[in-house]
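Lab notebook, bench 4. The sequencing result for the construct came back, and we need a structural model before the next group meeting so we can plan mutations. Quick request posted to the team channel:

Model the 3D structure of this chain.
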Amino acid sequence: VKIDFSLAPVYENKRLGQVAVTTKNMFSGMVTKKLQATIYKLNRKGNQQSKNAPNEDYVLVNGAWMYEIPRVEKPATADTVLVYQTSLISNTDKLNLLADLLQAGEYRMEITCTENGEIKGQNSRNFSVFDGEKKTWADTTKDFYYLPENAVVKGQSVRWLFGTTSKNIYSVYHVQYYAHKKKGIKAKYLYNFQNNESGMIEWKFKIPDDVAESEMILTHLYIQNNQLNKQSTTLYLVKKTTEEPEIIVEKYRSKL
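Done. Here's the predicted structure in token form:
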């Protein structure tokens, strides 16, 4: 039995939602099965990259950019702690992700199909949860980024979250896109400068009305301890759903 389900890599605690699970057989197609779902919390341990490790191959040393060979760390291992266990029927039920049980942290979901004591199918995926209200995220040894959605429309407000334990950060937010001009389409660049403290920072940006192409690039740069850190993401412009034309039915009174 092949078990399939989709999980986002990152969830906000108050917007967890539900997970649909399907099962099928390679011979008979879709089949309905009773499944067991288990969620474990992952407690990381072992070697991890320092939170101050550079993201770039070049670092600023005494006013000059120098090439640095990136450090290679051994992957961290994890202890697992049982958080939640339930049963469901595939292709019908949906698995609820419970906010009161899934606080900020890293998790693994395992879904198993067992018949007569024998495992017929199994699938697992990892995901993490952050808490926007408490401003906490899974791994504070690393910077945290979260973009709720990357498909946007003109005029929409976008929120991009950035979490860090570093202090006294000078941030530059950079937006790059092609805009409609009188003489055609030209590249346009927008900048926003901020002084940030440690914690979770929310940057809001409104999609301009003059966007000409289907993509925009958002970039966040900040300098900490003479090191340049950079994170970029792409927004994809979609057309607004056109409203259906209103059909007006006029009633005529017949004359006697």
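Residues 47-74, 243-256 have pLDDT under 50 and may be disordered.
Will bring this to the meeting.
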